[in-house]
């Protein structure tokens, strides 16, 4: 029977470890600024470098979730293809094994009063009194590292007390049934705590204190490795198609690796024992388990070398239905909200889709004289979704540049929304034209043709170097012809070829036409500027902004 002291030590140690891991990960992410994104965008030129990037970044940040979120953002932005993303995931899986090495090599040997407690104290002082956001974040990471080691020591003490009170050697079954039970235990620990690192710390501590035999601990590690996929699955339940494909690749890799490791468990443990002797490593059980974790994940990577091309082709056939739904957001992903520069890029990409759909709507209205209400309503919903996403992203500390860019996205959406308002009146102009004389219809038709030239030019030049004189020249030509058309309509009234009431209706519709094209071009200019502006890494931050949802103004 466990005493209250042992139970409180167990839960307290686990809590300290989880809190320390969270502080360490968040602190490193914030202290690094956009470093993680820059490294992923520049290091992942080949599959091998993608693998090394995934391994290195996960080992440094101590969170495969942070790396996975960055991958999702980059693949959505078109900066990574699926193949390289998969190899980053494979590398990230190997990178997670570094947590076990930290616990085994340092955590069990560290004197808390000599290193961990000072780290907590120094980190807390930096976090509270640091003069820059980066210093505060580094302080949080340092304090998190100290708490992590304090949690390991508390867990170790708890397991020693538990081992003295309960004989667990009679509780474990040998053979396949016993190993499967331990796999389930490892999986359940990771799924419940949403942290494979915490599950690994528990298993390593149990093995190091002789509470668990090595083979049972190895089976639990296999289960914990599979359990890491739960976080990825939950994260992409409502995510984009590419994000789901990455998550499926993550699940398949871990399942294949776990199955092979479980079938060859005896071989792996013998190989680990030989490697420990060959590398003159400490023969304790915790080192054995950390080495086992690394070896079977590396084997999984080897297995993926011939399988990855076929797996990638199969994945590309999944979730294609969601990609074909043009009216829904394709790039807005809640998983990258905490990484503002990636979230900004996602918002810009969906805003470009609005502009492209708006162009099609304008051209279709010109050709068919009909502006159906459904596509207009769908585009309004997409604009509101982008606004909601920007507001959500803005509820955190942001660099001045990114906060300004988010505000510009809201302003651009306002331009797009006003353009939509006038598309409906543009369609009414088509009906009004049937009541006019041929000379009057020809004048309006020429004006509409110039609008077609403008939106085509904008679409052709989207993403090109900015500013662009071609669009400005076409808009200038349109403005001149618009003034000529208005003067022509007034002359027609003077000659009594158009009634005064008809003139009022026609001028109203022509005004809507002019507003439509002007706001379309203004939105295009803003999107061009947002797309081509480089967001610098800066320590200057501002408080959360845009708290009042401006989407209601649309």
Mean pLDDT: 78
Main beta sheet: 2 strands, antiparallel
The assigned structural class equals mainly alpha
What is the beta-strand fraction? Answer: under 5%
As a percent range, the share of helical residues equals over 70%
Strand runs, count: 2
Q: Count of helical segments?
A: 21
- Number of self-contained structural domains: 2
Radius of gyration over C-alpha positions, nearest whole angstrom: 31 Å
Shape: elongated
Low-confidence stretches: 534-554
Q: Record the strand order, biggest sheet.
A: 1-2
Which series of helices and strands comes N to C?
Answer: HHHHHHHHHHHHHHHHHEHHHHE
CA-to-CA gap between the ends?
A: 64 Å
Short description:
The protein has 554 residues and is mainly alpha-helical. It is built from 21 helices and two strands. The protein has helices at 4-31, 35-43, 47-61, 64-76, 82-95, 97-107, 112-129, 133-165, 175-193, 196-208, 214-235, 241-263, 265-278, 285-316, 320-323, 340-368, 373-393, 400-433, 438-461, 469-494, 500-532, and strands at 398-399, 541-542.
